[in-house]
């Protein structure tokens, strides 16, 4: 497929179904067998999907995925009533709702990343290998298989880079309006959209959308706080308390466990990046010259997320757009992988 061509519908559907197959196959076991008794996150989102927002303040306002899961779970519950009556009264329909919603969104992430890799100059098949690396990550298994909301936030990150590179105003509009409801830390991604997205969406329109998004986010928070009768300052204090995690995260990232966490995000595919850094300056430049400032700043934003959350591995998965692009370009252009294009390695 030529670099700047628009993919046809068949290609889009095939890539999406391929992505969905990668996710559902690996995440199904997690969905069926995970023990929820020790997970605060999953308990919170399951309660929110049932209309109970009296959960930990960190999770309370991330309403979109629980709402979608609840909507999907209702017809599933009717099916369960006829097939497995005992399960219809349990959390199984809701858990399946989360599984289907998260798997659907992660497959969409795969499709967007495949196209993004091509926009950066990678070939179709190296882009497919790159999204395979992303979607077979252990964090993809967690994200799809459990009642979590990370799939939507990863979609926002993927659309942010795609929107900037493809100059897609609709991608940026989605990010600006949906981002704050995916996670509050979207505030760190917003400057990337504002400074690098001007070719897709003019600054005045961005300002207008950011204001509308802020009003919408405040309204949602206000309604939830009123429903459960808590002070709005509680969420502000919680956000500020995250800065206490920075020193803990720094110590952890330089520990053997922390290094292992970072390496395990994309597993063995991380070696592709290491290979891309070998071979001298000329070999490195074959792929590095295709990268741009938004990708590097995305890594800085991911680092901020990791330091504030102390969950280094989980937050590092947000680097998937940058990782996928780098992986695809290295497979295409670095001399070490020249055998993939039928050329012999020389030198």
From TrEMBL:
Keyword Membrane attributed: yes
Keyword annotations: Membrane, Transmembrane, Transmembrane helix
Tagged with keyword Transmembrane: yes
Transmembrane segments: 12-34, 92-113, 119-137, 144-164, 170-195, 207-224, 262-279, 291-308
Protein name: DUF2029 domain-containing protein
Source organism of this protein record: Adhaeribacter soli
């Amino acid at each position: 497929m030529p670099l700047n061509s628009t993919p046809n519908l068949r290609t889009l559907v095939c890539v999406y179904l391929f992505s969905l197959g990668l996710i559902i196959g690996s995440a199904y076991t997690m969905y069926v067998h995970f023990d929820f008794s020790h997970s605060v996150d999953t308990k919170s989102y399951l309660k929110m999907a049932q209309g109970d927002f009296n959960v930990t303040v960190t999770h309370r306002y991330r309403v979109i995925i629980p709402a979608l899961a609840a909507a999907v779970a209702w017809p599933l519950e009717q099916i369960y009533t006829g097939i497995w009556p005992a399960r219809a009264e349990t959390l199984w329909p809701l858990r399946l709702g989360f599984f289907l919603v998260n798997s659907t969104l992660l497959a969409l992430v795969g499709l967007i990343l495949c196209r993004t890799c091509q926009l950066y100059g990678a070939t179709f098949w190296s882009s497919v290998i790159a999204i395979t690396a992303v979607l077979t990550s252990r964090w993809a298994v967690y994200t799809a298989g459990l009642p979590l909301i990370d799939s939507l936030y990863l979609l926002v990150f993927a659309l942010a880079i795609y929107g900037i590179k493809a100059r897609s105003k609709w991608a940026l509009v989605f990010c600006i309006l949906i981002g704050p409801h995916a996670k509050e830390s979207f505030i760190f991604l917003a400057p990337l959209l504002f400074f690098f997205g001007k070719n897709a969406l003019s600054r005045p329109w961005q300002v207008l959308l950011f204001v509308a998004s802020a009003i919408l986010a405040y309204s949602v928070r206000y309604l939830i706080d009123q429903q459960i009768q808590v002070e709005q300052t509680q969420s502000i204090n919680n956000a500020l308390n995250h800065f206490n995690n920075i020193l803990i995260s720094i110590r952890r990232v330089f520990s053997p466990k922390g290094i292992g966490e970072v390496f395990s995000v994309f597993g063995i595919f991380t070696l592709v990046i290491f290979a891309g850094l070998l071979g001298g300056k000329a070999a490195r430049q074959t792929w590095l010259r295709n990268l741009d400032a938004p990708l590097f700043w995305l890594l800085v934003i991911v680092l901020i997320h990791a330091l504030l959350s102390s969950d280094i591995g989980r937050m590092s998965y947000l680097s998937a757009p940058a990782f996928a692009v780098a992986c695809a370009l290295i497979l295409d252009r670095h001399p070490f992988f020249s055998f993939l294009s039928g050329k012999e390695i020389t030198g």
